[in-house]
Specification:
The strands form 2 sheets. A 14-stranded antiparallel barrel has the order 1-2-3-7-8-9-10-14-15-17-18-19-20-21. It has a two-stranded antiparallel ribbon with strand order 5-6. It has 6 helices and 21 strands. The chain is mainly β and 496 residues long. The longest helix has 15 residues. The chain is elongated and about 95 Å long. The protein has one domain: Outer membrane protein transport protein (OMPP1/FadL/TodX) (Porin, Beta Barrel). Helix 1 runs parallel beside helix 6 and helix 4 crosses helix 5.
Length: 496
């Protein structure tokens, strides 16, 4: 089973001080989402204290209490991804573009009927209802890196796995990665030392391409109420989904000193993960004076049930100018179903209006990634695997602070917007500044009659490290990647 196979990898990774066991990476990947929104608040960023926008359905549901009319909008997105990867002294660029639906929502306004002579601006004024879709994360990634390794080979990694997990070659299970490496003559066995050793030499050319597709999304059912145009409350239920595919291929070319021949190896990994879950949000907005708004939201964890299918295969060809021999392996597939709980998130925000010409707003979030939790699906009979992965989460992840700042300025029917945001570093052992996620944005909006059109450009920049294999102890090669997403959002909406 892949979960158990990867636990043995965690043992190597933990000894070497690495953080990249696959399930730990998935747990964080599925927890680091962003509230998708209309193009208006994609440009501004901070929305918790503002309200009055369809984005509130997926962020602070109290914000739909500010609506005085019903409203509908949809927001398509164009996403361009670049990955500048530095690996073994060489820089490589990976690119991928994609289109998608970032946001679509509708709010129905329901004004409270009051008896004749009652004060219309006091007491409960409206009860509004909303339905919205948010794409909370896009996975259009294409990561490519290559270089010549003068110190190690991936065969060192295979040898370590085989030595730690098994004994003599007759104990290597059919279909395991260790058995594939041994059958491909990438590793040999030293009977006297009772350990495996790499048969490959150094100065090998290593290349990895990781293509990722899919997205995370959320359908929200929201309620918001207005009390005396001063206090707004709201709640929502979210139905979340995960659709993530990673298709990677690691290639290595070099010389096999034991077999005295050139080798060309290909190690394939394919992951297809789907999941569904549920969460809830509770929010408030308070307006002490007409020009100031305070907001707060509590977003519950998302409780996911996840289906994961992972396969790997290893092929090796020998020969310099022709194929002297080749060893082909059928991909081995591991299926696993598990439960995942993401962190609770607490958010606060403020909005300040300026002379009826615009506003500035700011948000802050608190998220504790060490509270991510795995649990076993029904009929799973190895609780130690779950316990060890939860222990690794506590050892490797920490709490983080996110913040956003933005504003809007209006000239007649045209609005100018800008924003900046930071998603905090979740890793205990990695540099806070290097591993934060920064967002820069700007946009325009135009209103005429009851129709509006908004456009926003957003750039997201963050760093990541990928190690094609990890050695303990040893010189694990590392690709340092600068990830850049350039996104364009277009919102078309109508009040009715």
């Amino acid at each position: 089973m892949r979960f158990k196979v990867l636990l043995s990898m965690v043992a190597i990774i933990a000894t070497a001080g690495e953080l990249h066991a696959q399930y730990l990476a998935d747990a964080l990947r599925f927890s680091q989402t962003q509230s998708s929104s209309t193009a208006r608040f994609k440009a501004i960023g901070a929305q918790i204290g503002m309200g009055g926008d369809l984005s509130s359905i997926g962020s602070n549901p109290a914000g739909i209490g500010l609506f005085t009319k019903s409203e509908f909008s949809f927001t398509p997105e164009f996403n361009s991804y670049n990955a500048d990867a530095a690996y073994l002294g060489k820089t490589t660029l990976g690119k991928k573009d994609q289109l998608g639906l970032a946001h679509a929502a509708v709010v129905w306004n329901s004004t409270v009927s009051k008896p004749k002579g009652a004060k219309l601006e006091e007491g409960w004024i409206s009860f509004n209802y909303g339905l919205g879709y948010n794409r909370t994360k896009a996975y259009g990634d294409n990561i490519l890196f290559s270089g010549t390794n003068t110190q190690t080979s991936i065969a060192d990694y295979y040898a370590q796995l085989a030595t730690i997990n098994y004994g003599a070659p007759n104990s290597l299970p059919t279909g395991s990665l260790e058995r594939m490496a041994y059958d491909n003559y990438l590793i040999g066995y030293d009977k006297s030392k009772r350990q495996y050793f790499p048969e490959t030499d150094v100065n090998n050319v290593q290349t990895k391409n990781d293509l990722r597709t899919g997205s995370q999304g959320e359908i929200n059912f929201a309620f918001g109420a207005n009390y005396s145009n001063q206090f707004y409350i709201g709640a929502s239920i979210g139905i979340a989904s995960i659709n993530y595919i990673s298709n990677s291929n690691y290639k290595e070319k070099g010389y096999n000193v034991t077999e005295k021949n050139n080798y060309d190896m290909s190690y394939r990994q394919y992951q297809n993960t789907t999941g569904s879950g549920i969460n809830a949000k509770l929010g408030v907005i308070y307006r002490p004076i007409p020009t100031v708004r305070f907001g707060a939201t509590i977003e519950s964890p998302t409780w996911y049930t996840i289906n994961d299918s992972y396969s790997e295969g290893l092929d090796t060809k020998y020969g310099k100018t022709k194929v002297d021999s080749q060893f082909l392996n059928k991909d081995e597939t591991y299926d696993f179903v598990y439960n995942l709980r993401t962190p609770l998130k607490i958010s606060g925000g403020i909005g300040i209006f300026i002379n009826n010409q615009g506003f500035i707003s700011a948000d802050i979030d608190y998220v504790d990634y060490s509270t991510i939790n795995f649990s076993a699906a029904p009929n799973y009979d190895d609780p130690e695997v779950i316990l060890n992965n939860n222990r690794e989460i506590l050892n490797n992840y920490k709490s983080a602070i996110n913040y956003r700042l933005g504003g809007e300025y209006k000239i007649d029917k045209l609005m100018f917007r800008a924003g900046y945001g930071v998603q905090g570093n979740p890793y205990k052992a990695l540099d806070n500044d290097r591993f934060k996620i920064s967002t820069y944005s700007g946009g325009l909006g135009y209103r005429f009659n009851n129709i509006y059109v908004d456009m926003t450009y957003q750039q997201i920049v963050y760093n990541s490290d990928i190690k094609p294999y990890s050695l303990s102890p040893g010189n694990s090669p590392k690709a340092s990647i600068k990830n850049t997403r350039n996104n364009v959002f277009l919102t078309i909406g109508k009040r009715f």
